[in-house]
């Protein structure tokens, strides 16, 4: 039993060590004190496997300290990139899951990570590129995209630093545009149902594509900024699979994305409402709002939008990550982009339904006239007023199109996001 546990855990440790960029760079730099960096990496892998298994109470901090000491002693390297902390957390988490019999969940999580070359093997070919120490200052200035590290021989080794696949910019942008253009009519119906003037007075099914231009232009940067912030924050927090990390990352991302989203929403929804005074271009709508109220005009409803988006993301993203992590264990099927999109659809639909009242309040504030009482009220006051006037149906106005829009949108959005991420990862690995 112990031998089986060790064999399984060693394969996991090996998988994670192959993803440890700092270790690979140390080997490629020739920084091992005896110039045998690859063999040392293999020995460290075995040592950490046994070290973690033998510890009765394994703590991530202790693992991190051990990894830091090994890198310092063996490679004369200090890891200031947070990699030992992240690696330590993974090693502790996966050993705990392994002991709890959650082998398949570990496989599912690792399969979701970008593929990497397995280089920690005795027959691996490591490319060492030596450069002479006496390089001129001018030459040094031309090598700004390289890292220089000392080796034990007194020479230096130059390693090209490859750019990472952008963490969310492109994938998020592509996904955002795909959703907003494909499902825009449903969004228009939802906006008109929530309008204070009512569905038919706001245009009914007439001009169903009004407001598409600002939505199309704004969706790419909004979604790109959101996912860039989401992925970056997850990484800064340790890239843990904890739902609390997903919640925190999603909350930060929503606040940042709203810097673009709110002006776009104002222009889009006022165009969608078919109010005569807004029968002008999106740019003119924002310009008039700025002239009348300054930045408060183009960011009207900013707080309400954040209060809608954060609860939405606090529900949607942890659910999406949870569904993905447990997909194969529950269904026995591999997690393909199609199933990633299905997880996104279910998570989005649930989040959309629960946050519909917040969306109703946000729409009322954005469509209100400059001096209307609506913009002077908070969310609770607005929803109480709607309930007194129209009952629970008013509070949940637009529920069906909102859930439909975000369910389908979740499938398209997360499907495109996963496909684009995989495409970029494959291209990056081929270069």
Compute the number of structural domains. Answer: 2
CATH-assigned fold name of the largest domain: Mitochondrial carrier fold
Largest sheet, spatial ordering of strands:
1-3-2
The shape, in one word, is: elongated
Q: Helices and strands, in N-to-C order?
A: HHHHHHEHEEHHHHHHHHHHH
Radius of gyration, Cα only, in angstroms? Answer: 26 Å
Reported CATH architecture of the largest domain: Alpha/alpha barrel
Q: Which secondary-structure class do the elements indicate? A: mainly alpha
- Classified in CATH, the superfamily of the largest domain is Mitochondrial carrier domain
Tell me roughly what share of residues is in helical segments: 55-70%
Number of H/I helices:
18
What does this protein structure show overall?
The protein is mainly α. The protein has 18 helices and 3 strands. It has helices at 2-17, 21-28, 37-54, 60-75, 83-99, 103-112, 137-141, 169-182, 184-194, 212-236, 243-272, 282-293, 295-298, 302-331, 337-354, 356-367, 379-395, 399-430; strands spanning 130-131, 146-150, 156-160. A 3-stranded antiparallel sheet has the order 1-3-2, with helices on one face. Helix 1 packs antiparallel against helix 5 (83-99) and helix 6 (103-112) packs across helix 14 (302-331). The longest helix has 32 residues, at 399-430.
List keywords for this structure.
single chain; 431 residues; mainly alpha; Mitochondrial carrier fold; 2 domains; elongated; mitochondrion; repeat
């Amino acid at each position: 039993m112990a031998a089986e546990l060790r064999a399984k855990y060693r394969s996991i440790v090996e998988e994670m060590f192959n993803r440890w960029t700092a270790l690979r760079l140390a080997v490629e730099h020739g920084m091992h004190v005896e110039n045998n960096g690859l063999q040392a990496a293999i020995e460290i892998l075995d040592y950490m496997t046994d070290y973690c298994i033998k510890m009765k109470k394994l703590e991530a901090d202790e693992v991190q300290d051990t990894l830091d000491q090994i890198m310092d002693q063996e490679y004369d390297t200090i890891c200031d990139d947070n990699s030992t902390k992240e690696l330590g957390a993974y090693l502790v988490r996966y050993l705990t899951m392994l002991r709890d019999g959650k082998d398949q969940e570990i496989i599912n999580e690792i399969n979701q990570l970008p593929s990497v070359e397995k280089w920690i093997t005795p027959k691996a070919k490591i490319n060492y590129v030596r450069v002479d120490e006496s390089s001129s200052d001018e030459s040094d200035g031309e090598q700004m995209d390289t890292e220089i590290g000392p080796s034990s021989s007194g020479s230096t080794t130059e390693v090209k630093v490859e750019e990472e696949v952008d963490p969310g910019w492109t994938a998020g942008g592509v996904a955002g545009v795909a959703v907003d253009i494909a499902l825009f009519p449903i969004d228009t119906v939802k906006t008109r149902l929530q309008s204070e003037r009512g569905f038919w007075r706001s245009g009914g099914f007439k001009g169903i594509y009004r407001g598409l231009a600002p939505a199309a232009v704004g969706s790419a940067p909004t979604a790109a900024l959101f996912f860039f912030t989401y992925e970056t924050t997850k990484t800064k927090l340790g890239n843990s699979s904890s739902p609390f990390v997903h919640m925190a990352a999603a909350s930060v991302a929503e606040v940042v994305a709203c810097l673009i989203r709110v002006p776009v929403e104002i222009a889009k929804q006022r165009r969608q409402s078919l109010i005569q005074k807004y029968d002008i271009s999106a740019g003119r709508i924002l310009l008039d709002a700025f002239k009348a109220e300054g930045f408060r005009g183009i960011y009207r409803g900013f707080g309400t939008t954040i209060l809608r988006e954060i609860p939405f993301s606090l529900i949607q993203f942890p659910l999406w990550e949870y569904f993905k992590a447990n997909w194969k264990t529950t269904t026995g099927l591999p997690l393909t982009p199609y199933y990633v999109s299905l997880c996104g659809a279910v998570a989005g639909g649930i989040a959309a339904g629960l946050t519909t009242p917040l969306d109703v309040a946000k729409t009322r504030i954005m469509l209100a006239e400059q001096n209307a009482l609506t913009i002077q009220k908070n969310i609770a006051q607005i929803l109480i007023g709607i309930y007194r006037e129209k009952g629970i149906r008013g509070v949940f106005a637009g529920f069906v199109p909102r859930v439909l829009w975000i369910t389908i949108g979740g499938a398209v959005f997360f499907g495109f996001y996963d496909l684009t991420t995989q495409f970029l990862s494959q291209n990056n690995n081929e270069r």
